[in-house]
Specification:
By secondary structure, this protein is α+β, with helices and mostly antiparallel strands. It has a single domain, classed as Sandwich (Jelly Rolls). It has a five-stranded antiparallel sheet, covered by helices on one side. A three-stranded antiparallel sheet has the order 2-7-4. The longest helix is centred in the middle third of the chain and has 14 residues.
Length: 138
């Protein structure tokens, strides 16, 4: 069995953003040489997320509005976590959007359903953060 590991680094220019990282993960899969197996992609920071959904701008705007209703950024004083930091909302948003995805690898390709893409969700940006890609298989 083969095992492959790579870290992808991101620094988005806003506090919150959704980045389609499917091409980067597909490049990792090609580099790994795995034809049949599993691909894990997970955010290595507790204020970021990795999830699968459609790459459609209206949907991303809906995510933003919905998450802001669930865990509004301001006022910062509404959160017990916010003392030295002001990112409690980012921790909560990550809980909703998830930490990782696992995608089957079939015949050397990510085995997606219709319209599925892998996204990095940033909820406390403007600094470097990493995503782990771990691929195992034959």
């Amino acid at each position: 069995m083969k095992s492959y590991r790579k870290e992808l680094w991101f620094k988005v220019g806003a506090r919150r953003a959704y980045v389609n990282i499917t091409p980067e993960v597909e490049a990792c899969l090609k580099e790994s040489g795995v034809r049949e197996g599993l691909c894990l992609v997970n955010a290595m920071h507790i204020t970021a997320s990795v999830f699968i959904n459609d790459d459609e701008g209206g949907l991303h705007a809906d995510f933003e509005r919905w998450l802001e209703k669930l865990a509004p950024e301001k006022p910062h004083s509404q959160y017990a976590h916010n003392g030295a930091e002001d990112n409690a909302d980012a921790h909560l948003k990550r809980q909703v959007m998830g930490r990782e995805v696992v995608v089957a690898v079939t015949d050397g390709k990510l085995d997606f359903g219709p319209w599925e893409q892998i996204f990095y969700g940033e909820f406390d940006g403007l600094r470097n953060k990493r995503v782990l890609v771990k691929i195992i298989g034959e």
